UniProtKB/TrEMBL annotation:
Any Pfam family the entry gives: Amidase
The UniProt record lists the keyword ATP-binding: no
Entries under InterPro entries matching the protein: Amidase, Amidase_CS, Amidase_dom, AS_sf
Protein name (Swiss-Prot/TrEMBL): Indoleacetamide hydrolase
Lineage start: Bacteria, Pseudomonadati, Pseudomonadota, Alphaproteobacteria, Hyphomicrobiales
Molecular functions per Gene Ontology: hydrolase activity
Species of origin: Bradyrhizobium canariense
Keyword check for Hydrolase: yes
Domain Amidase as annotated: residue spans: 27-452
Gene3D superfamilies noted in UniProt: Amidase signature (AS) domain (3.90.1300.10)
Protein family: Belongs to the amidase family.
Chain's role: Hydrolyzes indole-3-acetamide (IAM) into indole-3-acetic acid (IAA).
Domain of life where this protein originates: Bacteria
């Protein structure tokens, strides 16, 4: 077959072609490399290229897994032994990983060929991907805009059809934000569904988790089946699924009780096109037979304040460990000003402040758990304004006061579900008049990815998005 057809397949479909020997893993890798060469100079999504690593995987023989032969990228925050891993930071520009993380090992066991690392902001701290080390990652729908963050490289690469699925991670929205900004599907799993070891028991106080961004719902479900489950060092485990997640795709979701809002959780009005899109999707859901009503969960505390304390403390530890490793104080030649400022602010706080932030996160979680006693799904916009313009957030500015108001306006609703540990997904169901994607976020009860996969598959059937392609597309 002429491999111009590559872009028509999701990852499950490509793996099936390899299984039937209609195409080889080497041919798929060549196609992914060609596509990277074609579009990456414009979007800057694949910032570390290690094609020889993937070729050696194929030559040695890939494991027999659900994605054998499928090209794959991991985010430049995760370790893959023998490959360059920078965390988006200048001080680590030549860092080579000396071991492989548990999640990366599980990706390898699925049979994927990992040919590079996708772009991330420094240490994944921002909802836009514009690190000083590599420069901005641009949105394939409009190059003047960001593809989101912190998994912005993954979002741009999948949207531009370099590959159908790529690793992503989410500590405050970093799977769902690029899914929305890039017009792809992204589901943040339940806390502890997927492993974070061996170096961490949990990330950002239990807020962070890893999974993928994908073109199709079934790719996300099949990948979760392949990589989920605890490891020896897991401090806690997610509730086991009733059946494989892949079997939920296409299963009747039944009549769901869906609550929705077209406002920010702070009560602020949002972009009018996004508000209209939420209402239109709510009407679509009602037309599918679901019970839909307008209401939103109350917030017992400010998620932005909680994130500032928890993430700041984790960033401060990263800076301290780096200083110990290099034997000197870190400066703005090593880390971006935002990273150093976040660490400095955390050092002014106390252990009591950290515990108070944890308590606030619990109170938010408790309120959400109570809210979901009377509904199955909560719908709201993933982002409350269109994808940010490149340069709108400047992590190297001497005055960082512009950042918090932008974050409050842009992504006010994502982090609450990191605090509660609930699964939440962004589904590409709308585009604005300027042609930029507007993702819709759906959250479910703790442990209930199954309902999200069923609903996502239903929406994928009635409003398919796979053939809607951006301006920059391989």
């Amino acid at each position: 077959m002429a491999f111009k057809e590559y872009g028509k397949y999701d990852a499950v479909g490509l793996a099936e072609l390899v299984r039937k020997k209609q195409i080889s893993a080497a041919e798929l890798l060549d196609e992914a490399i060609d596509r990277t060469a074609k579009v990456d100079p414009q979007i800057n999504a694949v910032v570390v290229k290690h094609y020889d690593y993937a070729k050696q995987q194929i030559e040695k023989g890939l494991p027999d897994g659900p994605f054998t032969g499928v090209p794959f990228l991991i985010k430049d925050l995760d370790l893959l032994e023998g490959t360059r891993t920078t965390f988006g930071a200048s001080v680590f520009k030549d860092n080579v990983a000396d071991h492989t993380g548990t999640l990366a090992r599980r990706f390898l066991n699925t049979g994927v060929a990992i040919f590079g690392k996708s772009a991330t902001p420094e240490f994944g701290l921002l909802p836009t991907t514009e690190c000083r080390l590599f420069g901005p990652t641009r949105n394939p729908w409009n190059l003047a805009h960001s593809s989101g963050g912190s998994s912005g490289g993954a979002g741009a690469a999948v949207a531009a059809r370099i590959l159908p699925v790529a690793h992503a991670s989410d500590g405050g929205g970093s799977i769902r934000i690029p899914a929305s900004a890039s017009g792809v599907f992204g589901l943040k799993p339940t806390r502890a569904r997927n492993p974070l070891g061996p170096d961490r028991g949990e990330g950002w106080g239990g807020f962070s988790c890893g999974h993928v961004l994908s073109i199709s719902v079934r790719d996300s479900a099949a990948m979760m089946d392949a990589i989920c489950g605890p490891e020896a060092s897991s401090p806690y485990v997610a509730p086991p699924p009733e059946r494989p997640f892949a079997l939920e795709v296409g299963r009747d979701p039944g009549k769901l009780r869906i609550a929705f809002t077209d406002r920010s959780p702070y009560g602020d009005a949002i972009d009018p096109e996004i508000a209209a899109a939420v209402r239109e999707v709510a009407a679509l859901l009602a037309g599918l037979g679901h019970h839909v009503e307008e209401r939103a969960p109350p917030l017992a505390a400010d998620p932005a304040v909680v994130m500032g304390v928890i993430v700041g403390a984790n960033t401060a530890l990263t800076v301290r460990l780096t200083e110990q490793r290099f034997g000197r104080e870190m400066t703005d030649k090593d880390f971006e000003i935002l990273t150093l400022a976040s660490a400095h602010n955390a050092q002014q706080q106390t252990a009591t402040d950290y515990v108070a932030a944890q308590l606030s996160a619990f109170q938010i979680s408790r309120g959400l758990a109570t809210f979901f006693e009377s509904c199955d799904i909560f719908l709201c916009p993933t982002l409350c304004s269109p994808p940010l313009r490149i340069g709108e957030i400047n992590s190297m500015s001497e005055d960082l006061s512009h950042i918090m108001p932008i974050l409050r306006r842009y992504m006010p609703a994502t982090s609450m579900f990191n605090m509660s540990g609930q699964p939440a997904m962004s589904v590409p169901l709308a585009w604005n008049a300027a042609g930029l994607p507007l993702g819709m976020m759906f959250a479910a009860r703790f442990g209930d990815e199954a309902t999200l996969f069923r609903l996502a598959a239903q929406l994928e059937q009635v409003r398919p998005w796979k053939d809607k392609l951006p301006q920059v597309c391989a």
